[in-house]
């Protein structure tokens, strides 16, 4: 169902044309996104983000995003939840776009800092096993490739993929994400 909805939105955006000025320097935008960790079970496997962008010259932009992710790791017959709270800030470079800039490809780099909690802070599992670490401060860098298409003069549909390197994370140092979202430019 989700894949069909994303495909339908993609097809609709490829046929639309917006004649407004887009990606003007000093223009601001607010975005929300939903992403998943590929190859993980669907149960409690998601990332929700919300943040702001500020356009610079030539379609480049600064971004700052707050993020919450939840992922379950399987342990015998139960799941261990890992919740992550991150602040993500960086710069996105305009790589390619059509002549009207209705469809764009951007490449971003960012720094990440946040907090991770394993098993809701409880060190003892249901079978009596003890976790060595239930909370940690995490930090790292990320690279993001995003496909952005204007639905209207102000509304942008985004598809993106992200590769992260996070220190101290129980999910592993390298993580990848795939997601979609909407941005409203004002």
Care to give the gist of this entry?
The chain has one helix at about 1-15; strands at about 30-35, 45-55, 60-75, 80-95, 105-120, 135-150, 155-165, 175-185.
Describe the structure.
The structure is a single chain. The protein has 186 residues and is mostly beta strands. The chain is 8% helix and 60% strand. It contains 1 helix and 8 strands. The chain has one helix at 2-15, and strands at 28-36, 46-55, 61-75, 78-97, 103-118, 135-150, 155-167, 174-185. The protein has an 8-stranded antiparallel barrel with strand order 1-2-3-4-5-6-7-8. A hairpin with a 6-residue loop joins strand 7 (155-167) and strand 8 (174-185). The protein is elongated. The mean pLDDT is 87.
List keywords for this structure.
186 residues, mainly beta, 8-stranded antiparallel beta barrel
Question: What's the SSE blueprint?
Answer:
Layout (H helix, E strand, L loop, with lengths): L1 H14 L12 E9 L9 E10 L5 E15 L2 E20 L5 E16 L16 E16 L4 E13 L6 E12 L1
Antiparallel strand pairs: 1-2, 1-8, 2-3, 3-4, 4-5, 5-6, 6-7, 7-8
3D shape? elongated
Query: What portion of residues belong to β-strands?
Result: over 45%
Mean pLDDT metric: 87
**Oligomeric state as shown:** single chain
Radius of gyration: 18 Å
Helix and strand run: HEEEEEEEE
Largest sheet composition? 8 strands, antiparallel, barrel
Strand arrangement across the biggest beta sheet: 1-2-3-4-5-6-7-8
Helical coverage, percent range: under 10%
Distance between the termini: 31 Å
For the secondary structure, the number of strands is 8
- Give the count of helical stretches: 1
Unreliable residue stretches: none
Content-based structural category: mainly beta
């Amino acid at each position: 169902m989700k894949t069909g909805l994303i495909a339908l939105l993609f097809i609709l955006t490829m046929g639309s044309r917006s004649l407004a000025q887009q990606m003007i320097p000093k223009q601001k935008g607010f975005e929300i996104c939903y992403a998943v960790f590929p190859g993980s079970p669907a149960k409690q496997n998601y990332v929700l983000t919300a943040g702001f962008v500020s356009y610079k010259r030539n379609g480049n932009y600064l971004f700052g995003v707050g993020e919450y992710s939840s992922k379950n790791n399987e342990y015998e017959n139960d799941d261990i939840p890992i919740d992550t709270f991150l602040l993500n800030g960086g710069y996105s470079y305009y790589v390619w776009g059509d002549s009207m800039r209705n469809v764009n490809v951007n490449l971003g780099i960012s720094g990440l800092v946040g907090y991770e909690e394993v098993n809701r802070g409880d060190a003892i599992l249901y079978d009596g096993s003890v976790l060595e670490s239930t909370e940690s401060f995490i930090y790292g860098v990320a690279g993001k490739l995003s496909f952005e298409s204007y639905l209207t003069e102000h509304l942008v549909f985004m598809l993106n993929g992200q590769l992260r390197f996070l220190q101290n994370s129980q999910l592993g140092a390298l993580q990848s994400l795939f997601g979609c979202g909407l941005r409203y430019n004002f």
